[in-house]
Design a protein that fits this description.
Oligomer: heterotrimer
Strand content of chain A: under 5%
Shape of chain B: elongated
Strand content of chain B: 15-25%
Largest interface: A-C, 41 and 53 residues
Number of domains of chain B: 2
Distance between the termini of chain A: 21 Å
Strand order of the largest sheet of chain A: 1-2
CATH architecture of chain A: Orthogonal Bundle
CATH class of the largest domain in chain B: Alpha Beta
Distance between the termini of chain B: 54 Å
CATH topology of the largest domain in chain B: Rossmann fold
CATH class of chain A: Mainly Alpha
CATH superfamily of the largest domain in chain B: Response regulator
CATH topology of chain A: ABC transporter involved in vitamin B12 uptake, BtuC
Number of strands of chain B: 12
Shape of chain A: globular
Chain lengths: 325, 308, 499
Amino acid sequence: MNNYFTQLGNSTKQRARGMGQYGIFIAFVVICLILSLITPKFLTVSNWTIIVTQVSINALLAFGVTFVIITGGIDLSLGSMVAVTGIVASLLAHPDDYPVIVPILAGLLAGVFMGAFNGAIITKSKVPPFIVTLGTMTIGRGVALILSKGRPVSNLSDLFNFIGGGNILGIPFPIIVLILAFVVCSLVLKKTILGRYIYAVGGNEQAAKASGIRVNKVKMAVYTICGGLAALAGILLTSRITTGQPNAGAGFELDAIAAAIIGGTSTSGGTGTMTGTLIGALLIGVISNGLDLLNVTSYYQQVVMGAIIIGAVVLDGWNQSAAQR
Amino acid sequence: MKRIYLGLIALAMLAGCNQTSEKESSEKKMVIGVTMLSMQNEFIVNVSDEMEKKAQELGIELITVDAERSALKQIEQVESFIAQKVDAIVMNPCEVEASSPAVTKALAAKIPIINVNSETSTKPSAFVGSDDVESGRIAMKFIAEKLGGKGNVVMMHGYMGQAAQIKREQGAREILKQYPDLKLIAHQTGEWDRAKSMSLMENWIQSYGKDINAVFAQNDEMGMGAVNALTAAGMKDKVIVVSIDAIPDALQAVKKGTLDATVFQNAQQQGAKAIETAVKLHKGEAVEKEVLIPFQLVTKDNVATFIK
Amino acid sequence: MTLHSDYILQVHGLSKSFSGVKALDDVQLNLRRGEVHALMGENGAGKSTFMKILIGLLTPDAGEVLFEGNELKNSDVREALKQGISMIHQEILIVPELTVAQNIFLGRESTQWFSSWLNDRDINQQAEILLKQIGLDVSPKTKMKYLSVAEMQMVEIAKAISNNAKVIIMDEPTSAISDKEVATLFGIIKDLKIKGVSVIYISHKMDEIYQIADMITVLRDGKYIGTKSAAELDRKSLITMMVGREINTLFPEKSASKGEVVLSIKNLSQRGKFENISFDVHAGEVVGIAGLMGAGRTEIARAIFGLDAFSSGEIVLKGHKITIESPRDAIKNGIGYVSEDRKGVGFIPALSVKHNITLASLSNHTKAGMIQDKSESAVATQMMNDLKIKASGMDQKVTHLSGGNQQKVVIGKVLLASPEIIILDEPTRGIDIGAKFEIYKLINELTTKGIAVVVISSELPEILGMSDRIVVLSKGKQTALLSREEATQETIMKYAMLH
């Protein structure tokens, strides 16, 4: 039958495609190996605790934006959402003001609201997400400055500061939040209807619609989730640096998008995994940590990071064209 | 086309409003155009507030705009001040070189222009501010004395290449030279940012651990980040942290003893003196070309006088 | 080396493997000057690999290609173009924002002032002559995006001519153009023949092949099967050559009996697209919708399925009027739709076979929002067996399947939403004969189960072979509703060209 060789051909293609994800994992392991050979301080429990703690904020944002990018969208307002939610939470987190749950919920609510706002405009107006979130990025920054009157909000309660700085059984709280978020996001993407629909919408919006999927609802959902995760990141950050800062999170969206892309999420939509994104975020964290340990100036860090982003996408492109042949 | 038209009408109406308000005031108020580096920076906001206070006291109208760290924007703002024929301009420059054309233009239009807080390479009519080199000296001197002239120091830079970063580093290095046993074991930028500096400090703790005796951060935000990281690692009481600016957060930390010292840059004096100098220039009175407001070291002993 | 002056292109022993799998195995082709040579074969037979070698996109592992007696060794597209081999791709490659003339001369722009300045006037003049030559009535200054698909194709032909092409390869050139435009295209091909240009013509449409081709070469599984003159090769033998076995009747015997009316379309109209369309579909019945390109066939299907809104009329399901505002409503009401635009509306390329198949019925496999992988896989495996979908496994991405198998995946997806009515829009477009036959069989099985089927097709034999009744459209109006007995190719064409 003529399909015999298409079948065979296809299975090799599949293997080549799968390499894209392993590729970044291998790159990650290799970089870790090199760093641990150069400096004995790299491969220690305490250093890794620090790396993962530092990575947690970017990873949370990257998880959110991974959902969005898989649907074929983008969210540039992440950094601003971090600032707004951080300010909202910190304004309510002064000692003896409210129970600690109040600032947390308020921050989350602010993020969810901003995310839903993005989603509503994108689905209702049909304006490209890039432009909508570029707008809300600026609006968000303005709102953060208005709420804080341009000044950092400090003097936060000890309990609130525990979120970003505390430990449970020796594990920093941000790491616990990160692990929980990763598990939940992975499950949502892999195991739920919403997850499947997210891939479908990004893979072929028309076909998704023709399969009875409410495309707009899916988009609303991803932007809202993204806002919620940004809020989580904003609260963690605020608590970690023990102040709410109106200019916090500037440029964070780019690091988050970079993590997703390094992890194999395609900006044209339809593909990507949370594991990939997590590795992407860890890779960024490891490089920044490693170069700090080696006392390399941040200039080189930026060059290295940029090269890795391009490298990851080029690698992905090669795999894809190999798969198409 | 239509939009341009509407814009013109709107402009005309605005102009009309301005004229009527001017006519209403019996005697002509002095107008000063103020362009500030960034209204997202707490210290700059403080200086701006102090200028506003002084202006109200003297019955002067201030037009304050935010350059948002863009030298280009700042030049455009100064051009617009010139077009509005303000009586004087106060500029808090974004950059040493890039903001210089604004000074040239104002001087050419015979409008006095005052630099506040930092200086452009083209000499303005007057400069009101503090010498950042001095702040670096004060901070590092404190560290040297605390450590008895011997120990390991790490330094956190601001954005590389900015005037404040260059000068604060210069001051710190001058002192380091005087104490050969005081070693700078690492220095890296924290980009004036608390979160970034916290991560940087965490990584340094991994790298150098107990070898670090003192941290000099070029601003308080970074200093606070270092304090957070050291506290989390249980090392704060063994490491000295000093930074610059004396923002309220830092003053609280000095009071609590978590931050060992900060260097007070006098926003009130800078703002007030800038306005006073502008008025004098407008009236044609003689002024000092450089009005230097001294820095003050803030430690636990004197912190109470700085907390409002 | 013998030099046959009447052969422009001679290919011997051409072989090409991809990762150890032979895509082409000892293939030959002899092409005379001024000859239209059809290249036939099922999808995956190796036609596109073969053509890619000819135009320099791929390098062969073995074999030689003689062009005008000289060996063509290059694997360089520019070089092949320079020698005189051009290809009109199935998916037209144009720059929509550039003008017709700019597209024709893309990469060979005319310049002036020490070749620093584009000379658009010059290329416009040249393009004008070319367009006149092929009888295309558009201005060279029109932006490409305003042209119809057929016109774009003609522009590509003009481009090939301007390249002094001696051999033009046309890959499924009629897959997206109307019958009238096909006639124009064939006119151009005949002109090209007279000028001594040779054409390699790839198509699945038998009618076309017999209209236009002088010679037919058949490939199967990457192997050369044979070359015959079109005059001496009848359809049945051609199909046997292509499939490798005999297919006696293309359309299987019908076995279903007609039941109650399931769906009634009453005076359905959509402004500017179609008006007053009315027909019933019974359980177990196949209603065909015929008409020329642009008659509004697909538009009607899209409106019934809720992809587009309609302006007036009613959709009645088993005696109850229903409102359909989205495909979701349609699916809920038991209507399934397999789009003509398989890539655009049919499947999600990056998802696996399994995930595509279950996409429209995913809620049947969930507990508390979580997908139950076991039940999902079971259903997908079942459907893959039922429809004989050939894939390396249910986790293979649909984008890597052949056209026929992709179509089956889409049909499987629609079937799993358990529809009572299925609308199949061009269900066999671009898929090979073997797969076509299986889809016809499947339609029969559906009607046996009592499902009502609506088939839209441009291929009259298909409509005639499958339908119990046929709705004929002309320019958005319903001009006839023919029974199976009344319908012939001629009557359908008569009504399709009415007005």
